[in-house]
Amino acid sequence: MEVPNIPIVLTGAMRSSNELGSDGVYNYLSALRVASHDKAVGKGVLVVMNDEIHAAKYVTKTHTTNVSTFKTPIHGPLGIIMKHDILFFRTAEPRVRFDLQDISGTVPIIRAYAGMGGDGIISFLNPSNVQGVVIEALGAGNMPPRAAEEIYDLIKQGVPVVLVSRCFNGIAEPVYAYDGGGVQLANAGVMFVKELNAQKARLKLLIALNAGLKGQELKEYIEG
52 has which bridge partners? Predict the structure, then answer.
């Protein structure tokens, strides 16, 4: 797939132009400086806000109104805006690209809670109303036992299930082997996503499904 190798930078403002301390124009200028910098090439889509450069893949909003709301848990920013230069700390990882004209499908996000299961939230889902499911699991990647049983049934019906942690920091992985634990979930076919939050894991799954990935190929892409 031929894609122009040019920087793509997103920016915005947390304070509107009629508020004291509006940050819109400053962020816009910062984004222009980053986009025109030689080292911005090949780093994927970037988000520039409040003197920081983040990878769009990992950045998330952490506060409703604070100007320093955009942060990258685990990794930290890719770089910073200096007075006279742009400083990048890290390079971007290689990216997989698909030639897609549009993206469609229903992939809900379900957040785990204590005592979950038997309430119809997961059991309602089936191949006729969803193409995949993203689970925000407890801790390192665990579910209440009854909810886990419903997930196993969903997988048996052929619905891909992707799991992330509902924790703000850390990575979901199969650690515990008790009923509903991550080890049992992984053995049943649940795919554990590294480093992404639920919203972005949903997009990753949608892209993969629209690209026609299935089986082991889908698992390797989701968990890679």
Answer: 49, 80
Q: Which alpha helices (DSSP H) does the chain contain, by range?
A: 24-35, 145-156, 182-187, 198-210, 215-223
Q: H or E segment at 161?
A: strand 161-165
Instruction: Looking at the structure, tell me whether residues 29 and 82 fall in a common domain.
Output: yes
Instruction: Tell me the C-alpha distance between 46 and 58, whole Å.
Output: 10
Give the single-character DSSP code of 138. B
Residue 202 Cα distances to 29, 69, 147, 193, 197, angstroms: 32, 22, 20, 10, 9
3-state secondary structure at position 5: coil
Strands 161-165 and 191-192: parallel
Give which of 83, 87, 77, 84 is closest to 52, Cα–Cα.
77
- Tell me the average pLDDT across 11-17: 97
| 115 lies in the same domain as 80 | no
* Residue 107, token pair as written in the block: 């992939």
Residues 129 and 218 in one domain: yes
Contacts of 65 (CB under 8 A, 6+ apart): 14
What's the pLDDT tens digit per position in 60-100? 999 999 999 999 998 899 999 999 999 999 877 777 889 99
In this prediction the pTM is 0.90
Compute the distance between CA of residue 43 and CA of residue 198 in angstroms, rounded to an integer: 22
pLDDT tens for 42-55 read 899 999 999 999 99
In whole angstroms, give the CA distance from residue 207 to residue 193: 14
Separation of alpha carbons 86 and 178, rounded Å = 49
